[in-house]
Design brief:
The chain is an alpha/beta fold. The protein has helices spanning 56-65, 80-91, 130-143, 163-172, 201-206, 212-218; strands spanning 15-20, 22-35, 42-55, 69-76, 95-100, 108-114, 117-124, 149-153, 177-180, 229-231. It has a 6-stranded mixed β-sheet, sandwiched between helices. The protein has a 4-stranded mixed β-sheet with strand order 3-2-6-7.
Length: 232
C-alpha cells in the first residue's frame, strides 16, 4: 500500500513578531518509592531535570521549528530563569527583545512527576507594572515594521495589559494582528466583539504552500492556537 507524501510547506518567508507572556517550563522527573512520614504525600527522588520554552516563547519556537523567522517581545525579571530563557531562544535561532523588570519574577512553572505521572505543579509569577507595559509597547513600535504578522499571545500574566495600544501600533502600518486569547472574553482586545476566527487564513500570512493539515500534523501540541482570531 502506498501513501502520497505530504510536502512540507515553505515557511521561509514567514517573519512574525510574537508579543506576550513568555514563560519557562521546568520539569523534575523521578522515582516514587515511599510516602513522607511528615504528611500523606509521595516522596519524589529526582533523577532528571528539563527546561522548555513556554507561553509566548513556545509560540515563537513553533514558528522557528517550521522554518519561519520569529522575534519575541516580552517582560521578564532579572533572574536565572530569564537568563536560561535567553540562552534557549538563542539556541533555537529566535530573535528576542526581552524587557527586564526588577519588580517581577520571570514566569516559571515547575512540574514534578513520579512514575510517569505529574504529581504537583508550582507556579512563580507576578504581573509587570504599568511603566513596563509602556516600555514593551515602545519595543513593539521599533520592531513591528520589519515583520509581516503580529501574534499577541495572551496567557493572562499581564504583558498584554493595555492591549489596545499594541493592536493600534500594528494596524497603523497595516500589519495583520492574530490574537491567541485567554479565556473567551475577546472584547478586551478591541472594545467590541472580536472578528471571526481566522482558520485557514493564517497560512496566507505565514507563507506560500502552507496548509492547516500539514501544520496540525507537525504540531498537534499547538491545538490551543486554533482559537486564534484576527483583529482587523
Amino acid at each position: 500500500m502506498t501513501h502520497e507524501a505530504i510536502a512540507r510547506p515553505d515557511f521561509s518567508t514567514a517573519n512574525i513578531l510574537v508579543v506576550g507572556d513568555a514563560m519557562l517550563d521546568q520539569y523534575w522527573f523521578g522515582d516514587v518509592d515511599r510516602v513522607s512520614p511528615e504528611a500523606p504525600v509521595p516522596v519524589v527522588l529526582v533523577k532528571r531535570e528539563e527546561y522548555r520554552l513556554g507561553g509566548a516563547a513556545n509560540v515563537a519556537l513553533n514558528v522557528a521549528t517550521l522554518g519561519g523567522k520569529a522575534t519575541l517581545l516580552s517582560v521578564v525579571g532579572r533572574d536565572p530563569a530569564a537568563a536560561r530563557m535567553r540562552d534557549m531562544l538563542d539556541g533555537a535561532g529566535i530573535a528576542h527583545d526581552l524587557q527586564d523588570d526588577d519588580s517581577v519574577q520571570t514566569t516559571l512553572k515547575l512540574r514534578v512527576s513520579g512514575r510517569a505521572q505529574q504529581l504537583l505543579r508550582i507556579d512563580f509569577e507576578n504581573r509587570p507594572n504599568a511603566d513596563m507595559l509602556d516600555v514593551l509597547a515602545g519595543a513593539m513600535e521599533r520592531h513591528v515594521a520589519a515583520h509581516r504578522v503580529v501574534i499577541l499571545s495572551d496567557y493572562g500574566k499581564g504583558c498584554l495589559g493595555r492591549v489596545e495600544r499594541k493592536i493600534d501600533i500594528a494596524r497603523r502600518i497595516g500589519r495583520p494582528v492574530l490574537i491567541d486569547p485567554k479565556g473567551r472574553d475577546w472584547e478586551i482586545y478591541r472594545g467590541r466583539p472580536c472578528s471571526r476566527p481566522i482558520g485557514r487564513n493564517l497560512f496566507r500570512w505565514l507563507g506560500p504552500g502552507a496548509t492547516m493539515r500539514s501544520f496540525k500534523t507537525r504540531h498537534r501540541h499547538c491545538a490551543r492556537g486554533w482559537r486564534w482570531t484576527r483583529c482587523w
